[in-house]
Amino acid sequence: MTDFMIYGATGYTGRIASEDAKHLGLRFIVAGRTTTAVTELASYLHAPSRVFDIDNNQQLDSHLAGIQVLLNCAGPFMRTAEPLIRACIRNGVHYMDISAELESYQLAEEHDEDARTAHVMLLPGCGGSVAMLGCLAGHMVGTVERPARIDIALHVAGSMSRGSAMSATENLAHNCLQRQNGRLVEQDTNNGATFDFDNGKGQVQCVPVTLPDLITIWKSTKVCNIRTFVHASGDAFPTGPLDVLPDGPTPEQRERTPYDASVIVTAEDGSVRRAVLHTVNGYSFTPMASVEAVRRVLAGEVREGFQTPAGLFGHTFVEAIPGSSIKNL
Asked: Does domain 4-125+286-314 have CATH number 3.40.50.720?
């Protein structure tokens, strides 16, 4: 039996994840839709490969046979998550992905009961900002008695991959949300906030955005009021035609543009606690964290149904990724 499959392995992040998995000595299959690209990557990594269309249930079921875990790296996830989640539930395969799109998490919520019945785990966002922010929030909430509100921000530095830019553009049409008294409600995009990322820049302005952490942090901390923000520096959000963008930043560019996150937790009595996360560039963090998450799942760290990285592995998970540390302010 092969341990797991990476679908979307030939994409920018999927390829890095595949290389990381090879480096760790894991047994995996590279998979995707394009025969030439998948075959070339499989040859380079000396790994088995599979090529199939996720819209064909018969093909999906056939290719998932004998797989323990599927890591979905193929965005936009608003198109790929549902057929792959359904297929994993049908075939008893644990589903994991690297999505930063709300749809993956809403789907995981919707399919939670079916997954539990099938003894399948759904772990969207096993790498990336969901793991970063969830662990940071979990760390700080654990130090606050009766936490009432979480405001959390991600500092995005450097350039986006072409795939991320396309996914982000598709999601811009959605309303900006916050969690208020346990419910997802709209918020005014003009209601920005300032955060200190402890990077020498002091307080910086952050804009409200809809991040999946509105679902995952609520699930793992039970705090009913959550707002999510982003501060972008450099050329993080590209302009112009997206199809002419490079696949993603070079290793040197990633090295020069680390990410940070900042959290403010307000208790019921009005007292405030703050912490920051310093970590590597998101395009370095995501493949490392997702493969580490897969490794842990294969080792038996599994719970049925919809799970979150911080909830499953604990808030120290982020600090297992090289270059990552949390600091109380």
From this structure: yes
